[in-house]
Description:
Elements: H1 10-14, H2 21-32, E1 40-43, H3 64-71, E2 72-76, H4 79-91, H5 96-102, E3 103-105, E4 123-127, H6 134-139, H7 160-170, E5 175-181, H8 183-186, H9 189-198, E6 202-210, E7 222-229, E8 238-245, E9 249-256, H10 266-274, E10 282-285, E11 287-288, H11 289-294, E12 296-309, E13 314-321, H12 323-330, E14 334-337, E15 349-352, H13 353-357, E16 361-364, E17 374-379, H14 384-405, E18 411-412, E19 423-424, H15 427-434, H16 444-455, H17 459-478
Parallel strand pairs: 1-2, 1-4, 2-3, 4-5, 6-8, 11-16, 12-16
Antiparallel strand pairs: 5-7, 6-7, 8-9, 10-17, 12-13, 14-15, 14-17, 18-19
Amino acid sequence: MDRETAISDPRRLYGAHLTPTYVFREFILPEIRSHIYEYVWTDLFAGEGNLILPILELVPPSERVEFFRRHVFLFDIQRDMVERAIQKATGYGIPREVAERNILQRDTIKDYPTFLLNLGLPVYHITNPPYLYIGYIVKHKEARKYLEYFRGKNEGYQDLYQLAMMNDLRHGIRRMIYVIPSNFLFGFSVSNKVRMDFLQHYTIRKAVIFEREVFEHTGTNVVICFFERKEVPGHRPISFEGIKISKTVRKRAYTLDPKKYYRAGGPFEEFVEEFKARNPLKVKYYLTLEEVERNRGDFTLEVIDANRFNGRGYERMEVSVNERLFKRVKSNVLFVRTVDTGSMDGRAGLYGIREVFGVDGILVTRSPYRTHPIHLFIEPPLSYEEQILLKDYFNLVLEYFRRETDSEFMTTYKYSKSEYTRKYLGLSQVKRLIQTFPWLDLTEEERSHFRELVRKGDAEGVVEFVRKKNGKRRLELWR
């Protein structure tokens, strides 16, 4: 994307997505309704006020004005949002002049309203802060003004919502409810720093994890986190109940380990990190047009163009290459599907190029995309039968951990009406799972046993075999 791209949509410029009122009524209000007189209720990124103003419905009309004066303070950076929140407040019977005193235009990331801390009641912050990733900010000139926010004490954080959380931490707020991107719980480098810094001081009492659409104009996956400040700061595992909402509603227990950067969905990551083979396969991705151009010759390959999809399938073409590249392509028969298609036989995993597309290879003629089918190249070379075993092993173990973790180590890709929540598998995850394949370390007897476990689809047996084999090898290396 052009680094000078302009942003015409205010939602993108401010990273603001208005929270539907039902989110507050269904998931937040039951948690706070018995405590409304005990706190100053504030939203520093209030938008229309949907996360605070409905509290007024619990207050008798005759008491609402005084309650509002003492207990409700809203802020937003956009003047039009402030006006809309004021109008909503008047709909609850709050005089406009009173509403204007407590609903204010303010850039609260840059200018935290510290007067809230001196009102005689503890602050309870309920908010849906702006989501604007620093990588996005850098690429869009209208948003670059936010780069100054990421300097000094905020250096290293990756998103505006993370700065909002750290502001609350620095000002000693004890209770908060945040509607934030689910990458806070499940992300890797984008969230490691903020989790380590923030969860040293806060615990998560509960979380509501959405795998269905929440906002009208974005597919961002969100979680409602109920934060409470620890009495004594420290890095200790955090356990809480999560409610996961997709086509069904399910409860799951979560434990976040500081040794894993407090990241949820950890069993898969633990497996690929701790049980890498002693002699792992080397993995390379993509057959590029540049590589084809460098290796022109008299040998013909039939390929699909990963950059040209005509609605029914990928366009087919022939390329002429030298013998070396011809053999390399023909001897690597697998591709990576990183994105679930929505059908049960089209889930993320490894597949045969010839079986799915009827060609020799998958060519990238323009920019490589991680969501396209990706030609996989393995070293040292494996026979056709060994590659099929690798494919079956990979998919068996992947599906095992998807069942065990409800696919939480993967990224939700798109909301759809498919029979399961579609997910994206990162290329780094693909590589690390392939590198647990223990084939090069096995004796002939072990290979026979391993092959039989995979053939029978004994996922538990395969995982246990790899844990014992690769774990034992690691111990030998440490000795």
